[in-house]
Amino acid sequence: MTATTTARSASAASMSLSRGHVEILQFLRDRTSVIFTFLFPAMLLLLFGTIFGDSYEGTGVTASQVYTASMLAYGALTTGFVTMGAGLAMDREDGTLKRLRGTPLPMVSYLAGKLLLVFVLAVAEAALLLLVGWLVFDMPMPDASHWLTFAWVFVLSVTVCTLLGIAVSGIVKHARNAGAILNVPVVFLQFISGVFITPITVLPSWLITVASLFPIKWMAQGFRYVFLPDSMKQFEAAGSWELGRIAMVLGAWCVIGLVLCLTTFRWSDKDR
Question: What is the pTM of this model?
Fold first, then answer.
């Protein structure tokens, strides 16, 4: 690698970090976004965990603890899919993307800044949900080996949700409607993927089959493996954790999301 290439890489990384800092500050200044994107999953966890607190027979695990693990998938989906999709739609509509084409800021650095925002929010969201689960619902923390599984499930989950958020932003006609449009599939998938309704086996088999086509079901299942004892695998659709399949499905959706991004991304509304 030449000195020029190294300098360019360092400059791009610096601009990415700077853009990420700006994105985080802008997000924190919008109280509505903070409440509905960051705090809303925690409020739902408190609601569901309080209402449905019974134990699963023969396991010693409460429904509240199952909700804590499953809601980690919801947190990743809202921070990745909704935040990225709505943010890009807004930047496209107000001309931010168009103006950036005439500045020294590379588009890679702009997207990297958005990704930094998403990952910071996703980590904070996961920490908040786990804190609520630990303090309110006595959620036990896993051993070191399970934390390694958490790391790759978390990274794949946030990546696939972010890529799909970028892709869907290209078909949002008006930024003011982005939140409503993006939350429709989010809410629908929560109900059929074993996040809002547990265990997933209470759902009709055809609904579970539909849910299996999308990543959220596998995200929630992976997080349940991390935080719940092995006795809980009997309540999964296949009666096992299926870690290998979780990795394959999420990896496949990362590829699908990338392809969709390349085919749907637009710099401005005139590019339709």
Answer: 0.87
